[in-house]
């Protein structure tokens, strides 16, 4: 279920106080989107630079290294670095576009649209940290490790595989998650079930492993 659909379902029973639509709330949303976009740009340029440097280094080592095994491993590294760099250039973070959409919605005073946008951004963050984000790295590093192992160096192949997967994990977990963190905070709310009204707090829980909602009073 998409998060914006979940929001619609929650709003059937959760009614936010009228004072929620204040300048402080707008400022809070603005801070989330702005910090997310800034983090996304830093992340994008940093990892692009890392993979670009790795590609240049491996390209040099592939022909200039004195040891035959080092040259072989560097050629494998060229392929891995090129694929990683291409992935960075083709798959940009959603946060800069979300900031632009937030500014448009803010100019029109559409707080509901901003809330839905935040939920969609949190969903995108969740997906980018899920197991699907690891499949391509698993394939590339698995093939690279197998190629090195087939060269008669099983331990080197295992190290290459493990190192590649570790770098991919660092790439995944250094991504921006401002929207998920903001949504997971408890917010004041009022729950009405027929004649019964409860004052309390709710939070949407968004993580790579779960998606749900929690109510406390």
3D architecture notes:
Residues 1-21 and 204-217 have low confidence and may be disordered. The longest helix has 42 residues, at 23-64. Helix content is 70%, strand content 12%. A hairpin with a 4-residue loop joins strand 3 (196-206) and strand 4. It has a four-stranded antiparallel beta sheet. The chain has 217 residues and is α+β, with helices and mostly antiparallel strands. The chain has eight helices and four strands, in the order αβαααααααβββ. Helix 4 (95-108) packs antiparallel against helix 5 (111-128) and helix 6 (132-150) runs antiparallel to helix 7. The chain has helices spanning 3-11, 23-64, 68-90, 95-108, 111-128, 132-150, 154-173, 178-183; strands spanning 14-15, 187-193, 196-206, 211-216. The two termini are 26 Å apart. The protein is elongated.
Question: What is the N-to-C succession of helices and strands?
Answer: HEHHHHHHHEEE
| Helix content bin | 55-70%
- How many individual helices? 8
Number of strands: 4
The major pleated sheet works out as: 4 strands, antiparallel
Q: Give the distance, in angstroms, between the N- and C-terminal Cα atoms.
A: 26 Å
Q: Structural class, judged by helices and strands? A: alpha+beta
Mean pLDDT: 81
Q: β content, as a range?
A: 5-15%
Neighbour order of strands in the largest sheet: 1-2-3-4
Q: Specify the overall morphology.
A: elongated
Low-confidence stretches: 1-21, 204-217
Oligomeric state of this protein: single chain
Radius of gyration: 23 Å
């Amino acid at each position: 279920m998409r998060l914006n659909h979940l929001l619609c379902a929650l709003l059937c029973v959760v009614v936010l106080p009228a004072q929620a639509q204040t300048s402080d709330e707008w400022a809070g949303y603005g801070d989330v989107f702005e910090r997310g976009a800034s983090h996304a740009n830093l992340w994008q340029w940093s990892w692009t630079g890392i993979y670009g440097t790795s590609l240049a280094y491996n390209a040099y080592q592939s022909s200039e290294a004195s040891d035959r095994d080092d040259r072989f491993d560097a050629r494998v590294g060229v392929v891995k670095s090129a694929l990683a760099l291409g992935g960075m250039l083709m798959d940009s973070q959603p946060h800069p576009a979300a900031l632009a959409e937030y500014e448009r919605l803010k100019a029109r005073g559409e707080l509901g649209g901003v809330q839905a946008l935040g939920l969609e951004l949190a969903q995108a963050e969740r997906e980018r940290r899920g197991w699907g984000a690891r499949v391509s790295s698993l394939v590339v590093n698995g093939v690279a490790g197998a190629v090195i192992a087939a060269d008669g160096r099983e331990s080197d192949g295992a190290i290459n595989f493990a190192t590649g997967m570790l770098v991919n994990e660092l790439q995944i977990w250094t991504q921006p998650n401002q929207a998920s963190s903001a949504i997971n905070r408890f917010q004041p709310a009022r729950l009405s079930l027929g004649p019964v009204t409860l004052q309390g707090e709710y939070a949407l829980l968004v993580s790579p492993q779960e998606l749900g909602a929690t109510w406390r009073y």
